[in-house]
Amino acid sequence: MRARPISQERLVEELADRIAAYPRHDWVRVAVDGAPAANPGELADALVGPLRVRGRETLRVSSWDFLRPASLRFEYGKQDPDAYYDDWLDVNGLIREVLAPLDPGGTGKVLPTLWDPVRDRATRAPYTVLPAGTVLLLDGSLLLGRWLPLEFTVHLRLSPAALARRTADAWTAPAFLRYEAEVEPASTADVAVSVDRPGHPALIEEV
User: Fold this and answer.
1) What is the crossing angle of helices 8-20 and 40-53, to 10°?
2) Among 8, 54, 159, 189, who pairs with 155 as Cys (CB 3.0-4.6 Å)?
3) Which UniProt keywords apply (predicted)?
4) Residue 75, burial from CB neighbour count under 10 angstroms (0-12, 13-18, 19+)
5) Nearest 5°: phi and psi at 33?
6) Element (H, E) at 89
7) Tell me: the pLDDT tens digits for 44-81?
8) 10 Å Cβ neighbour count for 151?
9) What residue ranges do the domains of the chain occupy?
């Protein structure tokens, strides 16, 4: 694997350029994927301003607001890595409420949040209709390999050593190692970034 060091600021600018290059009247569904320790939400947040400067409105959505109810997530216990991998994300809900409405010819009517995993109840968020050309910025973990309808994907990669060192919930590490083996997200994503060193990303150019 070959990686090219890049500043965080330049990474954001290069990603924003690529996303903004999509046809201006099309919705663009972007996923920033990575383990929680890789902070995919921070990169997704950082893209909002540069995309607006480039004339693209944005909507931020997090997959953590589309988890399944606790009774389903914790059916095999609260620390089962296979359940974390297979059962925590409400894939159908995410597609139905967020991604499918942005298909070509779709309604553009999306639900930014569906489920509050802390209170374990529906968020009752209102729907919002996205103007043509809006960029949806979705962050989350274990998103690739699920056949999500997306135009552009970014994967933030942690080496096994960095994952072990930086993951607060150590019981989830086997899920990310399985993801690496089964999905090969660094090869699957449109852009892969090594984030082993916080604040010092590197673009993965060869896997």
Assistant:
1) 60
2) 189
3) Kinase, Transferase
4) exposed
5) -110, 140
6) none
7) 999 999 999 999 999 999 999 999 999 999 999 999 99
8) 16
9) 2-206
